[in-house]
Design brief:
single chain; alpha+beta; 3 domains; two-stranded antiparallel ribbon; 19 helices; elongated
């Protein structure tokens, strides 16, 4: 095998133009595939981080509290006790963020909007500092009561700036209308659909708006260190809460606001906990991610088809150009299987070198684009949920892409390589002889171009030992039987290349010369 690699490298170096052309094509496709994979991974990471920061945790311990059988609120009572059970049950908890939940109208002097309100304790919200970029003001200012963070588009609709006051009006869980005056402490850059209907304010102010006790929150957003344990941790929490005497709702892949009506129709009062994962709370983003994955797969298939067609065509040309080399190797005893292996190893080597160069180029482009911090237009930002385009390099994905293209390049080479392995030494040697005399015959192996074209038709159909008699123009080809010769002759007569030519099936004498001695009359005694 080592010798085949040496031969492969030597052949690639001898045919620099063809190597550069095919290798460059493989490198270009690999670079584009690496770019797409890093873009897809970056979008996944961005959407995941944004969704699990702005609207959901990895695991959500939420719930509903019903004062009467027909009216409920998205509340968790005595949440510090619930948080303690979470910490005791899950040793891999990273942090827990109490998040208030509400829906209210924001009113300024010139306009109003409806928005979902997230109550936060800024010092516990480690992810918000990574995801939100401030257009004005500081996120830390939300440590002060009666403050609010809104987004740029919301600020335009309300026509407010940092320091301006707005009124928040809502209805409490007991059906009482209430309002609270707040100051705009920060305006964040838009992050897509999440910023269209979300605002953030301190938990203490949200409890004041809804007239809630200090130990009440909307949900506990639980962040764990090992996401592979997500479902197992959720199941463990359910058992722990049930063991502690809590009522836990059946798992349902819906955000909490879609469950309000069904909860209101149920005949129970008091507290019920509702456990969900980030996937269940953000189904719309899961759909976007799947659509992106599907688009990446389609583009990858298109790229592989393009490179497969290019490699196969190039291999056919290479084999045709290297007929002399193949014939010589076969004539000195190289077996068909080894000829096949030689071409496959050459294709594998070229694929490996091309994908390596392409991956390096793709990673350089991705790194440069990450350093450039490209801004995302408003349209794509709606789904990406970030103002900056991000590329994520995942080594397994890059290596997998390289392996797929290398494997594709190798497999595609098998068909033309099998053709090379089947090439008979006599055919190859006749090609060599024809090339030797070609300069004296107008640059062609055959004196008659018409005869040459017809003989090539016969060669493709399976005829052997193609040649011409002396300087031609008569050409000939051999067949193993009369039946095969008749088939080939018929095929040649029907082909346009055989029109106007005298095509005959001849049988060889297949015996040596007969020598008969004749004595001349005048030589008799």
């Amino acid at each position: 095998m080592g010798q085949l690699f040496v031969i492969a490298v030597r052949n690639l170096l001898q045919h620099t133009k063809r190597t550069a052309l095919i290798g460059g094509a493989i490198a270009g496709v690999t670079a584009l595939l690496v770019f797409l994979l890093c873009l897809s991974s970056g979008v996944h990471a961005t959407m995941f981080e944004s969704a699990t920061t702005l609207m959901t945790g990895h695991i959500n311990v939420a719930g509903f509290y019903k004062v009467t059988a027909g009216q409920s609120g998205p509340l968790v009572i005595d949440y510090s006790k619930v948080a303690e059970i979470v910490r005791r049950t899950l040793p891999d908890v990273d942090y827990i963020a109490p998040r208030g939940r509400g829906w209210a109208r924001l009113v300024s002097d010139t306009g109003s909007i409806q928005a979902g309100i997230g109550g936060i304790d800024e010092q516990n919200e480690l992810g918000l500092h990574r995801v939100l970029k401030m257009a004005a003001g500081k996120l830390e200012d939300l440590r002060q009561p009666n403050t609010i963070l809104i987004f740029e588009e919301q600020a335009k609709k309300l026509d407010v700036h940092v320091g301006d006051n707005i009124v928040i009006a809502s209805q409490t869980s007991r059906g009482v209308n209430n309002t609270i005056d707040v100051r705009v402490a920060a305006i964040a850059q838009d992050v897509g659909m999440m910023s269209a209907w979300n605002v953030f304010m301190p938990n203490v102010s949200l409890r004041q708006l809804y007239q809630l006790r200090e130990d009440t929150t909307g949900a506990l957003l639980v962040y764990i260190k090992d996401l592979s344990k997500l479902n197992a941790d959720t199941d463990a929490l359910q058992k722990a809460f049930e063991g502690a005497g809590y009522q836990v709702m059946d798992r349902e892949a819906k955000p909490f606001w879609e469950k309000l009506q069904s909860v209101n129709r149920e005949e129970w009062t008091g507290q019920k906990l509702d456990l969900t994962t980030w996937e269940e709370e953000s189904a719309i983003f899961q759909w976007t991610m799947k659509a992106l994955d599907g688009l990446t797969v389609i583009l990858t298939i298109v790229l592989l088809v393009i490179i497969a067609i290019g490699i196969m065509n190039s291999m056919w040309i290479a084999i045709r150009e290297r007929t002399r080399e193949i014939g010589t190797l076969r004539a000195i005893g190289m077996q068909r299987l080894r000829v096949l292996a030689m071409f496959v190893v050459e294709a594998f080597t070229l694929g490996l070198l091309g994908t390596g160069a392409g991956a390096a180029a793709g990673l350089l482009v991705v790194t440069a684009l990450n350093l450039a911090h490209l801004n995302v237009p408003a349209g794509p930002r709606m789904f990406l949920m970030s103002s900056t385009l991000r590329f994520a390099v995942e080594v397994p994905h890059v290596v997998g892409g390289m392996a797929v293209i290398t494997l594709c390049s190798t497999l595609i080479s098998i068909i033309p390589s099998m053709h090379a392995a089947r090439l008979k030494p006599i055919t190859a040697m006749q090609h060599i002889l024809g090339d030797h005399f070609a300069p004296m015959q107008g640059g062609d192996r055959f004196t008659s171009h018409a005869v040459g074209a017809c003989l090539r038709v016969l060669e493709r159909a399976g005829a052997q030992a193609i040649g011409q008699s002396s300087w031609g123009p008569t050409g000939f080809a051999f067949a193993p039987s009369v039946e095969e010769a008749t088939r080939l002759a018929t095929l040649a007569r029907q082909d346009p290349a055989g029109k106007g030519l005298d095509i005959r099936v001849c049988t060889g004498l297949n015996h040596g010369a007969n020598i008969t001695a004749h004595v001349a009359a005048d030589a008799r005694p």
